[in-house]
Amino acid sequence: MDRHTLSVLVENKPGVLTRIAGMFARRNYNIHSLAVGPTDDPRVSRLTLVVGTEAVQLEQIVKQLNKLVHVLKIVELDAGESVQRELQLVKVAADAATRSQIIELADVFRAKIVDVDHDSITIEAAGNPGKLEAMIELLEPYGIREMVRSGTIALARGTKSITDGAKLRMQRVV
């Protein structure tokens, strides 16, 4: 099963996210990651969905999403042709003996120390999912107390844009 990243422009209206999540639930598709946020146009929001599925199922997902009234455009973002980032916060057990090692490890990953307590350190890291997974793997021996990760956000590299060719369709958004 492959992971696919979909960038979806939707009308910024109440209930749109519920309809999309409901469509996935009804068809028993799993969403690995979901991030939603505003765009430069306040009438439009952008969803970034990461789904684990075969190509045939992905085609069905895209067709079903396109049937939803408030969906304006869907683009699959290939990992090599897009910039993909996540944010994660990790609280790691840290005593006087391990604190400096954990701080050095965070520096290697260009992460920030955002909280220090007597027996823990909280690290903020941003990057592609592979980088964040590698950092977690190296922090596990110290004892991860708590962790949270945002959904993936992504943009096509270079001059490509999801809004290319979609201006006419976006004009209908009221």
Describe the structure.
Belongs to the acetolactate synthase small subunit family. Residues 5-79 form the ACT domain. It comes from Egicoccus halophilus. One of its GO terms (molecular function) is acetolactate synthase activity. Dimer of large and small chains. The chain has 174 residues and is of the alpha+beta class. The chain has 2 domains: 2-81 and 156-171, ACT domain (Alpha-Beta Plaits), CATH 3.30.70.260; 83-153, Alpha-Beta Plaits (2-Layer Sandwich), CATH 3.30.70. The protein has 5 helices and 9 strands; from the N terminus they run E-H-E-E-H-E-E-H-E-E-H-E-E-H. The protein has helices spanning 16-26, 55-67, 99-108, 129-139, 167-171, and strands at residues 2-11, 31-38, 44-53, 71-77, 82-93, 112-116, 120-127, 144-149, 153-156. The strands form 2 sheets. Strands 5, 6, 7, 8 and 9 form a 5-stranded antiparallel β-sheet that branches. The chain has a 4-stranded antiparallel β-sheet with strand order 2-3-1-4, covered by helices on one side. A hairpin with a 5-residue loop joins strand 2 (31-38) and strand 3 (44-53). The relative contact order is 0.20.
